[in-house]
């Protein structure tokens, strides 16, 4: 089975902290419902399954993952009812056949077992802001794949998890100098207007640690960034391209 297994790291969070700037809660930090962004998980996942990979879902605590409510709306699918139904059916199948509702706690996956995985993928949604960036087990997993130069994929808010690498080992940020694309500060400011509050910025956080952030109109149109073992995408529009590139990197690794 070696070489045909992929680890998908999910957040345990069903919300993220939002510092309200308007309304009756102005000045307070509230929990804004969130989770995994459906198409950011489903599109690359389908490509991995089509390419014959076996996937293992894992999270820091092994709690049942929740979809981000915004990713379930027809607006997110530009009105494509069939596409949304297909992706929801894929997740339902993963619940029935692949333990999606009970992800492996990352602490239960030894370094030795990590050797059996060909790559790791972290989907987005705002949930990773709450738990993945500061989690030592996430940091241990990412350091393993980095040291072995195994393909590592993350999209949208998923790259926030990269900050966890500072929690273990020598405390360094292992992706310093890497070119990375993620959900941009500009995109987050649009969400802040919608939610009426302030949200931690993935792009700024990674740039402050020394990553070379790739942003701009081309990235927003669904392109991806590849640097060494890392492939990253900015937002849901990049999900197909990210899945294709990840499978390609796995096949040549």
TrEMBL record:
A Gene Ontology biological process term: methylglyoxal catabolic process to D-lactate via S-lactoyl-glutathione
InterPro entries registered for this protein in UniProt: Class_I_gatase-like, DJ-1/PfpI, Prot/Nucl_acid_deglycase
Species assigned in the record: Aspergillus thermomutatus
A Pfam family matched in the record: DJ-1_PfpI
GO molecular function: glyoxalase III activity
E.C. designation(s): 4.2.1.130
One GO cellular component term noted in the UniProt record for this chain: cytoplasm
Identification of the protein by name: D-lactate dehydratase
Catalytic activity reported: methylglyoxal + H2O = (R)-lactate + H(+)
SUPFAM superfamilies in the cross-refs: Class I glutamine amidotransferase-like
Domain DJ-1/PfpI: residue ranges: 36-248
